[in-house]
Amino acid sequence: MALPVNPVEFTTAGQRYETPCRIIAVVWVGTTTAxxxxxxxxxxxxxxxxxxxxxxxxxYMGINLGPFGMHAPSGFSCFSLTAGTKLLVYLAEG
Length: 94
Fold this sequence. Notes:
Structural class: mainly beta
Helix content: under 10%
CATH class: Mainly Beta
CATH topology: Jelly Rolls
Order of helices and strands: EEEEEEEEE
Distance between the termini: 5 Å
CATH architecture: Sandwich
């Protein structure tokens, strides 16, 4: 099954991806201030998948969850995200 969008791109907190999926990587990019955060969470039950905190004025960080990734049976949402940055969430094809 081909994915409609890959990567899923979040630009503001509160955005959601509500389709069951498997996350294989997350990348946070953009201009930040020390202490800024970005976080994605499972939809249900609500728990953190990945959270990053900036230490400088430019962020490029993330996680590679390997070839099997992490199952998100109810999708996921962007819980926090600094203005001017993006969270790119890469999904495995089903």
